[in-house]
Amino acid sequence: MAHILVTGGAGYIGSHACKALKQAGFTPVVYDNLVTGWKDAVKFGPFEQGDLTDRARLDQVFAKYQPVAVMHFAALSQVGEAMSQPGRYWANNVGGSLTLIEASVAAGCLDFVFSSTCATYGEHDNVVLDEDTPQLPLNAYGASKRAVEDILKGFEAAYGLRSVVFRYFNVAGADPEAEVGEFHRPETHLVPLVLDAVAGKRDALTIFGTDYDTPDGTCIRDYVHVCDLVDAHVLGLKWLQDDKGSRVFNLGTGTGFSVREVMDQSRRVTNREVPFTIGERRAGDCTKLVSGSTRAEQELGWKPSRSTLDTMIRDAWGWHQTGHYES
Ligand code: UFG
Fold first, then answer.
1. Which of 198, 221, 223, 289 has most ligand 1 atoms within 8 Å of its beta carbon, as the pocket-test mutant?
2. Same domain as 146, residue 238
3. Share of the chain above pLDDT 70, in %
4. Do 24 and 141 reside in the same domain of the chain?
5. Residue 163's domain spans which residues?
6. Which residues have CB under 8 Å from 263's CB, separation 6+?
7. Please, where are the H alpha helices in 85-139?
8. Are residues 165 and 286 in the same domain?
9. Least CB-packed of 252, 285, 298, 325 within 10 Å?
10. pTM score, two decimals?
């Protein structure tokens, strides 16, 4: 079976991608430094511990497995941290990605799937966000991802590296079989935090601002189920293997939900109240981020099937109750 090098395969999205790749007949080789990932999340193929910035280690792994493609998930991804420690984002997300891309080209592995983000768009009030929307990131996280998109374009022109770039909206949910799921330390994402509050693992959820210009005053995001998201990656890989050329795709459903709507749905799913307090706005948060593109559906044949708020929270709750990683 063909090997796919999956950087960040011990993390939330990468681990789900490994499961989807295995189901699609590939062998995912996880390359992860375990700084934010979990060894226990590596269940679907071999594991190689290493850092993105370690070129010699990368060369070894490319030589050992001769992967036919790379799926590059590994990144620092907290907007708040990116505001306070931007250098880490440039060094790891840009420097590390450049090292990986150079190693991939040197190994003759020229199909590359990259996790980018809607955070590359920045704040565009009342603008429908599609792939042609100008990218004006507000923080070093978004800027680092946009920079890697630029590197990929340059490497295509120079070396024929083909890439599929996915700009994610808000990823949520978990494997319905709860083999893998979302687990960050510290946790910063809304759905697991709401479920922690519901389960009494934290006192309360703090709503970051209720004075936004939205119907209920809280921020609106476009939530997409992690299993749907990784299905798109498998389709993206096939797109590259069919030699259709480099392409950028938004991955969102086009429907936005406010923080309060996520809390209400969590109450319905769990049958428990969500304890909460109201706090200040969080630096770097945009009012509303919703995808306005159907390119992935039209061109890749992507059909999200689990991305209703109900299913995402139900699956996240299933994982929350049974799943956790220790190492
Ligand atoms: N929120 C709260 N309280 C919390 C945590 C979050 O009210 O304790 C709110 C946020 O203000 C935001 C929404 O819930 O309005 C979602 O917040 P997340 O932290 O779950 O997600 P973000 O929208 O901030 O970030 C996500 C990804 C980033 C990506 C970004 C693009 O985590 O990697 O989407 O906007 F860059």
1. 221
2. yes
3. 99
4. yes
5. 3-172+224-251
6. 194, 205, 207, 274, 276
7. 86-89, 97-106
8. no
9. 298
10. 0.97
Task: State which H helix or E strand residue 189 sits in.
Answer: none
- Rounded to the nearest whole angstrom, what is the distance from the C-alpha of residue 189 to the centroid of ligand 1? 6
Residues 68 and 113 in one domain: yes
Residue 126 has a pLDDT of: 67
Residue 122 pLDDT class (50, 70, 90 cuts): confident
What's the pLDDT tens digit per position in 247-297? 999 999 999 999 999 999 999 999 999 999 999 998 878 888 999 999 999
Say whether both 40 and 70 belong to one domain.
Answer: yes
CATH of the domain at 281: 3.90.25.10
Pocket of ligand 1 (CB under 6 A): 77, 79, 117-119, 141, 170, 188-190, 193, 205-208, 219, 221, 259, 282, 285, 289
Quote the ligand 1 centre to 257 CA distance (angstroms): 12
For the residues of 13-53, what is the DSSP string, one character each?
HHHHHHHHHHHTT-EEEEEE--SSS-GGG--SS-EEE--TT
127, part of any domain:
yes
* C-alpha to C-alpha distance for 9 and 128, rounded to whole angstroms: 32
Residues 9 and 68 in one domain: yes
Asked if the model's pLDDT at residue 197 lies above 90, the reply is yes
Dist. CA 117 → ligand 1 center (Å): 12
The single residue of 65, 141, 168, 223 carrying the catalytic annotation is: 141
In a domain, 209, yes or no: yes
Q: What is the pLDDT of residue 286?
A: 85
